[in-house]
Amino acid sequence: MNATITTSHSASHTISQEITMFRTTLSRSSLRRIGTVTTGLALAGSLAACGSSTTAADSDSTAAASSAVSSAAPSSAAAADATPAGPVVGKPFTADMGKGNVARITIVSAKYSTGSVGQFAPAPTKGGYLVLDVLWETEKGTTTSNPLYFAAKDAQGRKSDTILGADGQLGSGEVPAGDKTRGVVAFDIAKGPTTVIVTDQLLQEAARVPVKV
Questions:
Q1: Which parts of the sequence belong to the DUF4352 domain (predicted)?
Q2: Most buried one in 94, 107, 204, 210, CB count within 10 A?
């Protein structure tokens, strides 16, 4: 009887130990799994945050680049519009006078006058005179200056030839390379936007200059 009770008690104790060991093992395993899951979730969160930051940074970079291109385009367009396409008052330009001879001409200034431009000049019939201060140089070969190589057209396309007799009128004659001459060229023309036309000795157009007075 005592032996049976002792055996039963030993068996119960063994079973109790096994149950305790099982619970301990189960607890450790569960903790490991929980730790693994927690670590995985934390890693996933970090990756997601990095992805969001990268996407946001890429978006900001793209937006900044687009903004830079957009702001640069109008500036380029404005610069293109501000750059004259041809000769202008105040800056020298070249005119092919034929046979390899090239003149370098500058309309130094332009003004409109309703008064007399010279003792021997005729009275204006269109309201006044467009008066040009012209510098004529030769860039290549030998050219010939002449006030009659200039003409003017008003905004309606009506042509006016140079008048003769203006004080300080541009002289006529050969201008060798490196030499220059300067003088006045005047037109009897209505006030407003005007196009000055420069011709060669055969009266073929060599250049056009817009003038506003």
A1: 108-195
A2: 107
Taking residue 3's Cβ as centre, other Cβ atoms within 10 Å add up to 7
In this structure, are 126 and 207 located in the same domain? yes
22 phi-psi bin (left φ>0, alpha ψ -120 to 50, beta other): alpha
Same structural domain for residues 75 and 165?
no
Give the pLDDT score at 98: 94
Is 105 in the same domain as 205?
yes
Boundary-marking domain end, from 60, 83, 106: 83
Distance of CA 51 to the CA centre of its chain: 38
pLDDT mean over 18-23: 49
Residues 56 and 141 in one domain: no
Of 5 and 140, the structure prediction assigns the larger pLDDT to: 140
Domain that holds residue 152: 93-211
Enter the pTM of the model: 0.62
Long-range contacts from 108-113, C-beta under 8 angstroms, 24+ separation: 108/133, 108/134, 108/135, 108/182, 109/133, 110/211, 110/213, 111/213, 112/191, 112/213
